[in-house]
Description:
binds heme C; extended
Amino acid sequence: MRFCFALIAIAFLLPTVSSVSAADDAAVAFKSKVMPVLSAHCTKCHGAEKQKAKLNLGGPRTLEQLSADSKLWFRVMEQIESGAMPPDGEKPLSAAERKAVANWAHGELASGLASVQQKEGRSKFRRLNRSAMAGFAAAHG
Ligand code: HEC
């Protein structure tokens, strides 16, 4: 009986555990893989002192912040992958640095954003459902 209960508990806990670790992964990997590259190549122009294009790419980010700024991070990835940034005359990223950033974007960031979306999607769906029900009740008095 006790064993059975434990299995059920695990089955319920697993989805939460995996989404929590996806969340941690994106922020932790940002700090360990992406931040060093940004500080070496970008924050001189996009940091606390200078903010070209009004961008500050310095400092760590939580998953919530990454998610709120996801469009920015895709633009950053585009600039890096296309080689447009850093601009001419600046030290370009090494192949390893480029790869570390791309791996983060396609790996931890993508799954982190998916886990946020899943959470938000679920609550949006619930809200939607409730207002649809209210509309239905109003229409059918
Ligand atoms: C020597 C200064 C300098 C460095 C170093 C630099 N940038 Fe920029 N960046 C600029 C300037 C100036 C602009 C605005 C004008 C432009 O787009 O060229 C800009 C614009 C941008 C934009 C906005 C473009 C858009 O799509 O809105 C992004 C994103 C960006 N940089 C990312 C980066 C990243 C990532 C790095 C490091 C890999 C980096 N930059 C390094 C000077 C710099």
